[in-house]
Amino acid sequence: MEMKPVSGTNIPIRGNVAVDKSTGQQQTRVSNDEQSAKITEELNKMSELNKSMVTYQKDYEFNLSYDELAKRISKEYMTTKKMLAPDAEEYTSLAEGDKKALKHLVKAAYILEGINLKLDNHHNLAFREFLNREIAKDNEDAKLTSVLFEAQKGICAIDTESNKINLAKGITEKLGKGLYPEDLSVEEFHSIIKKMIEQGKIDEVRTILNQRSVVERDGDILKGTDYIDKYKTEFEAMAAELEKAAKVSTNSDFNEFLMLQAKALRTADPMLDAYADKKWAELQDTPLEFTITRENYSDEMTQTVIENKELMELLAKYDIKPVSKDMLGGRVGIVNKKGTEAILKVKEYLPLMAKNMPFNNEYEQNISPDKDSKQTMVDVDLVAVTGDVGEYRGGITLAENLPNDDKLSLTIGGGRRNVYHRQIRLITSDDARQKLQRRLDATLNKEQHKYYNDEADHWFTVGHENGHSLGPNKNREALGKYQSIIEENKADMVSLAMLDILTEKGLYTPEQRKQIIVTFAADNMLKSKPTLSQAHRVRTVMQNYYFLKHGAIEISKDGVLTVNIDKMVPTACKMLEEIVRVQIDADFDKGEKYVLDNFVWTDEMETVAQKLKEVSKTLNGRVEAPLAMELLEAE
Q1: Is 380 in contact with 420 (CB distance < 8 Å)?
Q2: Sign, Cα dihedral of 556, 562, 563, 567
Q3: How far is residue 49's CA from residue 43's CA, in Å, rounded to a whole number?
Q4: Which tens digits make up the pLDDT trace of 311-324?
Q5: What is the DSSP-derived secondary structure letter of residue 62?
Q6: CB under 8 Å, gap of 24 or more: what pairs does 433-442 form?
Q7: Which terminal CB of the chain, N or C, has fewer other CB atoms within 10 Å?
Q8: Are 82 and 423 in contact (CB under 8 A)?
Q9: Maximum CA extent, the chain
Q10: DSSP code string of 534-600
Q11: Distances (CA, A) of 342 to 210, 378, 379, 482, 602
C-alpha cells in the first residue's frame, strides 16, 4: 500500500501512505456539520441491519475544547478529499445494471465500516451514540467532535504533525486496538499464552495469534473468535448486498468474484477468502471495483509476542507463528480505462525488475523473471472508501497492492492486484496549486522547481506498489513491529533503484527520470518527527537520513533542499540491498538495529519541518462522498 507522507501536508499513505500535496477543496463549518450528520444518519441505518446490536448509554467527556475543535475542522486546518459526485460522467455513463450494482456495493462497504469501528476501538460505537444523543440536544461541542470522529473514523487517531488526537477524556488507543481486551497488558498477555500452551490448548492459542480473530477473556484465559463468527449478522448483511449486486452487474468475472466473496462472508473459513482473493486479483477489464482490504499494520499487541524470545521458542515447538490481526476496509469505485491503460505499461517490465532485485537467487518472488506476471492493475475513480481504507489519520490511502504475503491465496496460485485512487492523488483546484507552489518556494532549490511534477509522484507510486511484489516474501512476521517499516522502505527503494533500468528500456524519458527523483525527494520532507508506530513516516525519516548521509540530498541551514540527481539511484540501490538482506535473514534483532540506526531525525529535517508548518496549517483531513450518500438513501 502506498501511504507516503507528503511534504507540507504530511499525508502519508496506508496500503501498503497516501500522498496528498494539497489541502483540496474545503468545506465551511456548517457544511462539515451537515455532511457529518448525514454520514452518521446513513451509518446508523446500516447498523440497524445488525439485530443483535447493543444500545450503549455510556457518557463521555469531550477531550478537545470548542475552540480547538473549531480550528481543526476549519478550511485552513482540515483538507477534504471529494469522491465522485452523483452527476459525475464516470457514473452517469455506466450501464443501468452497473448503477444498480453500485448501490449494493456501497451499502456493503458501509456495513463493513461499522465492523471495523468495533475492531479499531472498544469505545467507537458507544462514543458515536453518545455524540448522536448530544447532537440531538443541540450540543455544539458534539457537533464539531462528530466531524472529526467521522473524518478519522474513530475516537482515537493521529494528525499530520504526529499528535495523538483522543476525542474523549480518559480514552486512549491501546496496542491491541479493539481486537484484544482493553485491560490486557503485554505481560499478562504473554503469561496467559504460555499458560494455555502448558495446558495443551494449542489450537486455541493458534486461533488467538492469527490475523482473523477477535480476542476476549474466558475466565482466566483468552478466547479467539474468527471475526466472521463474531460479527455474523453484519457479515451476512454484507453478503446479501454482494449477491444482489452480482445479479445486476454487467461483468461476469466481477460477478463471480462477488459471489465468492459473499460466500466467504457467510462462513469462517480462510480458504474461502483465498478463493475470493485469487479471483479478485485476476480482474482486469471490469467496469466496477469492489474490495475488502485486510491489512495488519495497526495491531501492535500481537507483535509483542515476537519480542519475547522464550515465548517464541515455545510457540515454535508447535509451529505457531504470531501474525498481526487485520483491520478491514472497503473500497467502491469505477475503473478508469484511460488511467488503467497508462498504468499497465509497466507490467511488461516486471520480470526485468524481478531479475534485477538484489540477491534474487536466495528467494522466490511473487513476480518471476521468466514467467507471466500474476499482477493486475487498475486506476479507479472512487465512490466510497470506508473503514481502514477511509480513515484520515495523518494521511489516507493512495494505492494498495493486495493480497499481502500472509494471505492464503498466494499459496494456491493467486496473484496480486494494484488499485490506484484517483480522487486521492489528483490536485483539482487553483487554491491547492497555490499551496503546493508555496511549499516548493519555501523548501526546494528554485533551480530544481522545473523538475517537480505532481504526476511524477504517481509514476513513483506505481513503482512502489509493484515493488511490494518483488523481493523476499517469506517469514517477514519474524521482524515483528519493524516488518511494515522495512517492507514499505523496500517498496520505495525498488521504485527508485529501477529508474535507470526502466529509463534505458524506454518506460521513462531521461526528463521523466529527473522529475521522479526530484519530486520524490521534495515530497519526502515531513512536518514532524513520527513515532515508531507510524510505519510509513518512519521509513521516510530513514530514507532522508540515509540520503543525507550519502550526499544524495543536501539541506541548507535555512531549510532548502537540493537533490543530487546523479547520486539518488545508486544510493537507493545500496539501501535496497541492505533492506533485502534484512528481509532474507528474517532476524528481529537485525531488523530492529537497521531501523533504529537509520531512524534519525536531524537538525536539517527539523528546520524543514518548521518551514513546512509555516506554509501549511493542515492538521486533519476528511472524505466527502456525495454519490455514495445518495446511493445509501436510494431504495
Answers
A1: yes
A2: negative
A3: 10
A4: 999 999 999 999 99
A5: B
A6: 433/22, 435/8, 435/22, 435/23, 435/615, 435/616, 436/8, 436/21, 436/22, 438/615, 439/7, 439/8, 439/21, 439/612, 439/615, 439/616, 440/522, 442/559, 442/611, 442/612, 442/614, 442/615
A7: C
A8: yes
A9: 68
A10: -HHHHHHHHHHHHHHHTTSEEE-TTS-EEE-HHHHHHHHHHHHHHHHHHHHHT-HHHHHHHHHHH--
A11: 38, 9, 9, 34, 38
The model's confidence at residue 4, banded by pLDDT at 50, 70 and 90, is very low
Query: How much is the CA Rg of the chain, to the nearest whole Å?
Result: 23
Phi, psi of 349 (to 5 degrees): -95, -5
pLDDT digits (tens, 9 = 90+) for 209-256: 999 999 999 999 999 999 999 999 999 999 999 999 999 999 999 999
DSSP code string of 510-541 = HHHHHHHHHHHHHHT--SSPPPTT-HHHHHHH
Distance of alpha carbon 4 from alpha carbon 229, whole angstroms = 35
C-alpha cell of residue 557 = 541551514
Q: Which residues contact 170 (CB under 8 A, 6 or more apart)?
A: 61
The torsion angles phi and psi of 378, rounded to 5 degrees, stand at -140, 145
Q: Following DSSP, what letter does each residue of 357-374 receive, concatenated?
A: STTGGGS--SS-TTS---
Distance CA 241, CA 222 (A): 34
Residue 197 to residue 212: CA distance in whole angstroms: 20
C-alpha cell at 37: 450528520
Is there a contact between 15 and 472 (Cβ–Cβ < 8 Å)? no
Whole-structure pTM value: 0.89
Query: Taking each helix axis from N to C terminus, what angle separates 454-467 and 510-523, rounded to the nearest 10 degrees?
Result: 90
- Give strand ranges (E) for 360-503: 375-387, 399-402, 416-421
- Is residue 270 scored above 50 in pLDDT? yes
The Cα 561–Cα 379 span in angstroms is 32
What is the β-pairing status of strands 288-295 and 327-335? Answer: antiparallel
In sequence order, what are the beta bridge partners of 2? 399
Q: How far apart are the first and last CA of the chain?
A: 35
Grid coordinates given for 466: 509493484
